[in-house]
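To fix ideas, we close by showing one paired sequence and structure record:
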Amino acid sequence: MRHFLFSLMMIFCVLSCEEAIQKPANILPEEKMSEIIADFAINDQSYTIGGNINTENATRFILKKYNIKGQLFSDSYKYYMTKPEDLKDIMNKAQDIIKSKDPKAEAYINKKLKENPDLPSQAR
């Protein structure tokens, strides 16, 4: 009985080591993901302020700017969502890009982090 339980536990250990999502063949590198996410965040803020921006066209523009298909971005994002540390790095780099493009963004981000220090990097 012990050997059976031990064997069963070993099988579960081996199977649990597999990745949740298969790594896409043409995954976007972390640097490019950071740049795209920063552009999406800036676009989102423009929509909030302007109100009359067509988000679908803006999304297409950003993807065309980087010469990628929406499916590639989606697949890469889904993959990075299964890698919390990698996603945190991507989001932090995106945040740095936003800060470099808009100095006022740093004060806003710091204010939000003080209000909620446990805010995950995806929500900043």
